[in-house]
């Protein structure tokens, strides 16, 4: 199964790239994680934020391969602990479709993306900066995979 992380924002600092790559590389097994970056619109002084958000939403939707399961990362989504995430991952694999995980930019995800979600995943009640979200998601997926595969990385 391929999991595509489609995230608004590009040109991340090196620590973000390294953190994400560390877990994406480890996950490169029967579950493969890929990152697609959507360039964030320029937020100047008089920027039309709703227009920028709409454009980011259109680009995000266009990056999703046809038929993929869409899961949005939202503060107000469902909080999953690691065993629950591991169960979702198993269900995703059984389902046979690839998964697109959508991460928004500074103002979050466009309405279009939120409306398309089959599942909404919350990492915490805290609003996290979007670069950090990439790393937390990659690590959480790797941990869930290790639980499903009796790999010693995850300990109870
Ligand atoms: C800086 S946040 C956007 C904040 C925006 N005010 C909102 O409420 O969505 C950027 C993106 O990171 C993701 N994100 C941030 N915190 C999160 C959390 N606790 N759980 C899940 N996703 C989160 C979401 O995809 C969000 O669109």
From TrEMBL:
Name of the protein in question: Ribosomal RNA large subunit methyltransferase H
Catalytic function, reaction form: pseudouridine(1915) in 23S rRNA + S-adenosyl-L-methionine = N(3)-methylpseudouridine(1915) in 23S rRNA + S-adenosyl-L-homocysteine + H(+)
EC numbers for this chain: 2.1.1.177
Residues annotated to bind S-adenosyl-L-methionine: 73, 104, 123-128
Family: Belongs to the RNA methyltransferase RlmH family.
Chain's role: Specifically methylates the pseudouridine at position 1915 (m3Psi1915) in 23S rRNA.
Main subcellular localisation: cytoplasm
Subunit structure of this chain's protein: Homodimer.
Domain of life: Bacteria
Annotated keywords: Cytoplasm, Methyltransferase, rRNA processing, S-adenosyl-L-methionine, Transferase
Organism: Neptunicella marina
KW Methyltransferase (keyword) present: yes
GO cellular component labels: cytoplasm
């Amino acid at each position: 199964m391929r999991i595509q992380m489609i995230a608004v924002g590009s040109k991340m600092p090196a620590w973000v790239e390294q953190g994400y790559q560390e877990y994406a590389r480890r996950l490169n097994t029967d579950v493969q994680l890929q990152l697609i970056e959507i360039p964030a619109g320029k937020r100047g002084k008089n920027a039309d934020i709703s227009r920028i958000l709409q454009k980011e939403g259109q680009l995000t939707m266009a990056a999703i391969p046809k038929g993929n399961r869409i899961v949005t990362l939202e503060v107000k989504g469902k909080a999953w602990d690691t065993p629950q995430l591991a169960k979702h991952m198993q269900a995703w694999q059984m389902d046979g479709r690839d998964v697109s995980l959508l991460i928004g930019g500074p103002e979050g995800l466009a309405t279009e993306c939120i409306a398309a979600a089959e599942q909404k995943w919350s990492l915490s009640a805290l609003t996290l900066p979007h670069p950090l979200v990439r790393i937390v998601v990659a690590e959480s997926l790797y941990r869930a995979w290790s639980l499903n595969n009796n790999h010693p990385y995850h300990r109870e």
